[in-house]
Each structure stands twice: as C-alpha cells, then as structure tokens.
Amino acid sequence: MTVKVSHTAEIQKLFNEAAGLTNDQGSPRVKQIILRLINDAARLIEDLEITDDEFWHAVDYLNRLGGRNEAGLLVPGLGLEHFLDILQDAKDAQAGLTGGTPRTIEGPLYVAGAPMADGQVRMDDGSEPDATVMFLEGVVRDTDGKPVAGAVVDLWHANTQGNYSYFDKSQSDYNLRRRIVTNAEGRYRARSIVPSGYGCAPDGPTQECLDLLGRHGQRPAHVHFFISAPGHRHLTTQINLSGEQYLWDDFAYATREGLVGDINFVEDVDAARARDVQGSRFATLEFDFQLQKAPAQVAEQRSKRPRALQD
Ligand code: FE
Predict the structure, then answer these.
(1) For the domain that residue 263 is a member of, what is the CATH number?
(2) Residue 159: beta bridge partners?
(3) By Cβ atoms counted within 10 A, which residue in 4, 60, 157, 176 is the most buried?
(4) From the CA of 150, how far away is ligand 1's center (Å)?
C-alpha cells in the first residue's frame, strides 16, 4: 500500500513554514505559488512512489538544464508554451477578443534591439553565399482590413544551419534579425535567406528528456514575429514554411492553422537578375498579418519575459 504523509499536520506545518506563510516578509504571491508547488511535488512523489534515485536524478537534471540554458527549450517541448497560447485564446474568447492573426509561441531565441528600417531591409549579412535568397513581404492590417502604417514588424529566423545569431557566436551581430516599420500602405519587405529547420542539441538535457519520451526534437523552418502598433494589440507569432517535413510534427507545437507560410521557389535567371540575385534560384513568401485593436494600452506591449540583449 502506498504510504502518504503529506496531508499530516506535521508536514503541512513544515510546508507552510518553508513557503514563508509563518512570516510577514517577502511576496504573498510567491508564497502562494511555492506552497502549491511544494504540496503538488509531495503528492506526485507519494502517488507515483518516486524513488530516491529518480528524485535526485531530477534534481541533477534541473541543474544541467539550467547549465545549458535550455529551460526555455524544454518548456515548449513539453507543450506548456503552446498550452499558454490556448489558455490565452480561451480567455480572449470569453472577453470577446477575437479575430486577427493567431498567436503562437515566442521560443527562447529572441534578442532585443535589432536594427530598425523603414519599409524594407536586407536581413542577412551575405556570409552564406550558397543560401537561397528569400523575399518575404506582406501587409499589416487591422481586423477591419485597413492597412496599419507605422507598425513595427520585429522578425528573426535561423540561418541555413538552423542556428540563430547571438546564440551562435559565429554569426555577425543581429544577422537575420530586424525591425521593419510598415510604410503608408502597411507593407513590410525583407530580403533574407531561406532558413533551415532545426533540432534540439543532441547532447543536451532537452533532447535527453525527449529521448525518454520516445520523441524527436525537430522543428520545421520558420520565421518569428513580434508585431506592434499604437492602438493595436501586440502579436507574438511565427510562420512555419509549407513543404517542411516537420510542419505538422513540430516538437515545440508552434505550427497552427493560419500560420503556414506558402513559400514559392523560383528558377528563372532573368527574374533573379531583376531582383539582384546571383544565379537563377530564389524564393518568395507573402504573408499578411491582422492585429486586434488594443483593449487597453498595456495590451500594445509584449510580455515582460526576460530576453537576451546584444552587448
Ligand atoms: Fe525558432
């Protein structure tokens, strides 16, 4: 029979003390959360009869997860970041906030402060001459279909190796990261390169966990976006590229209906030359966004999630 002690007065007194409930210092909110966390952990240990070996393995795992800076990778891998999106969608529906481009997960690889440009920009630094040039453009509109001029389209994506600048120190600062301010027609235009999908580091703790779950750690090629404009609700989203092996089998669960970018590969020497592309091959990708009206000014801002900032 399973032995349980977490409900006893002695243990409840211990957990209340540990969560700071017996003092008047600190944060009541954090105390509430930690008390719940300790109690839930204790119940999990009892209910699943967690062994000492399993417990201390988990503690060591947390140390290694942090040591590799992968907590932000495990969270989407376990579906929790997508869950937050679905939960927010449900809260929005209850509040009558519907319409517009769907949100999807941010992921852990944004870097604040990318260079700003008006209307159009080149995003790659030319260091991958064999990459396929990608012309990415679209219009930002409100939910009535009116173009939003002056919206900031803050986008970032991986290179052909599936790596992101800043985290991959071999790339130049802010390579494949830009902020584009939409023109009078609400349009943004980027010349970049077709990104590659990527996977979790094979020797990292996230993949170690996924292996034990019998899962892969791969993502389809995609482009991340923050889109913001005065009077409109901040949008965090990404477009996942059509034709990708992992499009609907994304370990991070980011792909959603309405967020598949239809990438079009062109083989045409004259068209390439007209676009100042070497050779004959390039890609085009059109993607428009719709922003909801902001119900309050705070909704215009992205979350205060801690993010990297280029030194
Ligand atoms: Fe990504």
Answers:
(1) 2.60.130.10
(2) none
(3) 157
(4) 25
